[in-house]
Design goal:
single chain, 277 residues, alpha/beta, five-stranded parallel β-sheet, 5 strands
Length: 277
Amino acid sequence: MSLPSALIIGPQKAGTTWIHRYLESRGDVCLPHGVKETMFFDRHYKKGADWYAEHFQPASGMQHTIEVAPTYFHHPDTAARIHDELGSIPLVCTLRDPAQRSFSLYLHMRRYGMTTCTDFREAVSKHPEIIETSFYATHLKRWFEIFGQEKVLVLMQSDLAERPQSYTRMLCNHLELPYVEPGEMLHERVNSAALPTSPVLASVGQKIADSLRTAGMYPLINIAKRAGLKSLFFGRSGNTVPKLSPEERCWILERLRPEVRELEAMLQRDLSDWSKC
């Protein structure tokens, strides 16, 4: 039975897709088979460790088993569950300007029919997870308490953009992987925002996809993606999407600044840019 020896724990919309693509491109890392995220430790924990292990099928030459799981970061029970099942393994958390990340999550929720709110403030009121998942200090404290701070590598998305080689070396060192230079394809932007043509159609598509994932019917989802149904249901990346306005940034930062200050103290890192309107 193969289980992960390390996890990328998120949060969403902060660079985990790039890490997944990098690990996939190496050829020596086993990632979940047939699906990008198992969501075992948050949504499907009752299915048991054997169900989880079935997702990992190492091929020849794969010396490491890792899952990139961005929804684990903020869930209140995942840290303890992971420690119970996998032990004190290395973890990686990648963070991003919390105001931008919250707005990006809001657009993600609109794309996949999780909200029909076209006003950001209304969406935050109806879906508090948009801002609560950006309470980085609050959530990191839980991971530090259970695993110890030395086991949790905190990376910044801005470092990936400015110093990709250094970022990748830190990632590899913490995951105990030999360093492999990121290829040119990994410098391209990934997971661009989009909005659906029909919020109703997006909601239906997401419910169908969730049902198929719960049933383990990953091949059907992948066939649908190759057939272009993702763009049909959820819109095509690159279309025009709203931007976070200066007024909205100031509004959301009023709620996030205490978390930013606490995180600065925890990490001993200057994050003052995150507090600027």
